Amino acid sequence: MSKNQILKALHEKKGEYVSLEKLASEGEISPEQVPEEIQWLRNDDYIIEHSSELGYRLIKVPNRLLPYEIQRDLHTSYMGNEIHYFKEVDSTNEVAKKLAEEGAPEGTIVIAESQTSGKGRLGKKWLSPSGGVWMSIILRPEIPPRQAPQLTLVTGVAVAETLDKEFGLDVGIKWPNDILIGNKKVCGILTLAYTNQKLDFVVVGIGIDLNVDLENFPPELREVTTSLKKELDRDIIGVNLVQNFLTDFENLYNEFNAGNFPEILAEWRRLSKTIGRHVEVHKRGRVVTGEAIGINTDGMLILEMEDGSLRKVMSGECIHLN
Ligand code: BTN
């Protein structure tokens, strides 16, 4: 794509002028076509200065999740090789599902600046205004369908480790798959497995409240949600976070495929903010209360009830009581 080639040439000399002729030859277009390509970049919020004598120079890259910017410095072997980007979309999970059905390869990413119909767990809506990272990844693991929920745990560990490494905050995981900073949620994960006798593909949806303005959230959500911007009191560069996450996720997913899930589960337990806590798990109007004492290899939470008996819980909304 000539736009990407032009951008590459501008990036290589960021802040310095690149001549019209050089941009034309890099983009394999005529000099007359260069202004049009520059306009496309400006429409994507790149700040590019023009001098009729010297050419064009890149002044500022937008803080947006543009595929070119993500792929520019991405050192994965397949995660993010194909990126489908939307300024706005209904749900990246829905788009990823369609692409997977059409044969999109493993590691394909769908990413959006905002979603009009974001999906959360347990049929809930997921608020997705601009400023967040709303992303879905297509996976094609060769595992039996019953192991698919393990991928939620793998993803949770990858997100928590990425945030921990990059920002050193008090990051942890609330069962089954909420990433918390302190005791507030910063990221949710929704894994959908599609089977046709055997496991066809999995779509892992990840929603991170990056630079999201929580003031516009309803009060009940504001109390239990945080954003990285709020925690760090500055705007976070989304592209860097996505690149780091894709690298960590690819490594962990390769470990998973190599049969090393027990080690990943051990890491999940280390990162868990639920184990050791008194909790309530709500599901379809029913509530189970107990001490969370562990998680098994199927991702089920193990509760010790008041009478000392043990109970395994498959899914639900977990509330930490202490
Ligand atoms: C949760 O309820 O905690 C899970 C939220 C998952 C939200 C993400 S945002 C990207 C992807 N697309 C969706 O519609 N949902 C997931």
Explained architecture:
With 322 residues, this protein is an alpha+beta fold. Helices cover 32% and strands 29% of the residues. It has ten helices and 14 strands. The protein has a seven-stranded mixed beta sheet, sandwiched between helices. Strands 13-12-11-10-14 form a five-stranded antiparallel beta sheet, with no helix packed on it. A hairpin with a 5-residue loop joins strand 11 and strand 12. Helix 1 (2-12) crosses helix 2 and helix 1 crosses helix 3 (34-43). It starts with a helix and ends with a strand. The model has no long low-confidence stretch (mean pLDDT 95). It binds biotin (BTN). The site of biotin has 21 residues, from helix 5, strand 5, strand 8 and strand 9.
Helices and strands in order, then pairings?
Layout: H1 2-12, H2 20-27, H3 34-43, E1 47-51, E2 55-60, H4 67-72, E3 83-89, H5 92-101, E4 109-115, E5 133-139, H6 150-167, E6 171-174, E7 178-181, E8 184-196, E9 198-208, H7 219-222, H8 228-232, H9 238-257, H10 261-271, E10 278-283, E11 286-295, E12 301-304, E13 310-313, E14 317-320
- Reading the helices and strands in chain order gives HHHEEHEHEEHEEEEHHHHEEEEE
Helix content: 25-40%
Mean pLDDT: 95
List the ligand species: biotin
Question: N-to-C terminal Cα separation, in Å?
Answer: 55 Å
| Morphology | elongated
Strand content: 25-35%
Radius of gyration: 22 Å
The number of helical runs is: 10
Which runs of at least 5 residues are low in confidence (pLDDT < 50)?
none
From the helix content, strand content and strand pairing, which structural class follows? Answer: alpha+beta
